[in-house]
Prior knowledge:
The structure holds 2 protein chains of 2 kinds.
Chain A: E1 6-15, E2 18-28, E3 33-37, H1 44-51, E4 57-64, E5 67-68, H2 74-80, E6 82-85, H3 97-104, H4 113-126, H5 128-132, H6 143-155, E7 161-165, H7 173-188, E8 192-196, H8 200-206, E9 209-214, E10 217-223, H9 224-229, H10 231-237
Parallel strand pairs in A: 3-8, 3-9, 6-7, 7-8
Antiparallel strand pairs in A: 1-2, 1-4, 4-5, 9-10
Chain B: H1 5-32, H2 39-57, H3 64-82, H4 92-114, E1 127-130, E2 133-136, H5 137-159, H6 161-171, H7 173-178, H8 183-208, H9 216-230, H10 235-256, H11 258-275
Antiparallel strand pairs in B: 1-2
The structure holds adenosine-5'-diphosphate (ADP) and magnesium ion (MG).
Amino acid sequence: MSEPLMQVSGLVSGYGDVQVLWGMELAVQAGEICCIVGSNGAGKSTLLRTISGLVAARGGSVRFAGRELAGATPAQVLQAGIAHVPEGRRLFRGLTVRDNLLLGAYHRTGATRAEIDDDLGQIYDSFPILKERRNQDATTLSGGEQQMCAIGRGIMSRPTLLMIDELSLGLAPLAVEKLCDSLRAINRGGLSILVVEQDVLTAFELAQHAFVVETGRVTVSGSCAELARNPQVRQAYMGI
Amino acid sequence: MFLDPQILANGLMLGALYACIAVGFSLVWGVLNVINMMHGSLIILSGYLTFFAWLHLKVNPFLMLLVVSPVLFAFGYALQYGLINRVVSRPVLTTLTLTFGLDMILYNLMNVVFEATPRRIILDLGSLSVGDVVLPNDRLFAMFLALGLTLLLFWVMRSSRAGRAIVAVRMDRDAAALMGIPIRQVYAMTFAIGALMAGACGVLLAITFPVTTNISGLLLGKAFVVCVIGGLGSVPGALVGGLALGLIESYTGTWWGPQTAVLLGFVLMIVLLMTRPTGLLGKAGYE
Lengths: 240, 287
Ligand SMILES: Nc1ncnc2c1ncn2[C@@H]1O[C@H](COP(=O)(O)OP(=O)(O)O)[C@@H](O)[C@H]1O
Ligand SMILES: [Mg+2]
């Protein structure tokens, strides 16, 4: 197998005196959709926050496209090609859908107006409802629409890897289905995706590879098909 | 009595200046959660710069807008980036104490260097008479410039990349960081814009009123009152609050004398704080 797009090894981090990640190991291959599953408080969000530089890494490494990103600032991580769609969407209140999307492209100082408009058009093609609602305060959208906007905002940075924290949390099943379809289409366009998802069935249906996280470590990993047959995983996370 | 156009005109001219004074203060408070106790002194400093440039160098005070504003912008940027940023995430009392201390230094320096005697620029631009209403041209120009600057700031916050970044940082700092927005630079830029607005107000003040260090505390008080009336952290809030305060002072001043007018402003602030702490237009509150 060729070198993975992102290789996380021995990653350690936490908040103050509390250590949360205890040597994380995971790899994302270019072009695939990976998922991270695990119970509440396992450290999934902390992992994403450490990768994107919001939380400082205390040890270990994040190799991404031939560069070391552990210890980089959020701006540097974004520049390197990783976008992070945070848990709870975190859209900017008081700004329109369009302004929220444009903020995704904030760091692209070299891009022309036409390029940005072009990318905006592509987001609107993927999520037509956003075009309709483009002049509306983004936080007045429905949950599913907000997730589309947050994902669109992430894509506006032109990443090679898109990390999404809690894709389906709080959303109606129909909205989740739509989002998954859109993500598959976006993935076919060449974008690699790492998604944190508490609903294991949804996660395994969307992704090719899965990592199970327990108390700050990856305990099981493999192809989703494999993991869906694993009795431990079935019992702990699928209730079967 | 309510419709006396002269009182109305005076109120609007004063109110526009108040709006301009408050808008920078409100921005810094809303975005950084820093109560900039230096705001009044920065206005006075700019007023003195304008006065002495006029007195000694014969510089037209209106032109000083183009000089003082960038100088104050640079000063504000350096101050925030080098000093206030170090404590910006501490509780609001820490930053308040810091800016209070800085204000004491600036205020006393000005007293030593400029002396407290009121300094007045005399321009003799004449006045405009509409019916019975007399509008001094210097105040009229100052009013339009104050409104223009306030609207310009509104436009910058609404439509520019920097403005979007400032709003984003205000609303959600972590999410803003994920957009690659450099938080510390945005803080510095925000404080710098606040200082720039104070600078511009100082110039307009020097054109229309005597400049003296004695009123720096009063100006700061006005900024507080306007923010409470209009709501914190938004340009329209400051505009509405400023015009409201100007009109209130103009009417009460004519009816019951200027001392009562100033007092009433502060009474109104206290009443609003108790009944409607988000201000007339406010949504965000004092987070
Ligand atoms: N800002 C924070 N400060 C302190 N502890 C935190 C913070 N955020 C999360 N934690 C703790 O870190 C652990 C992992 O949290 P998190 O990464 O959010 O888990 P998950 O996303 O898997 O539900 C939890 O025990 C949580 O209480
Ligand atoms: Mg989480």
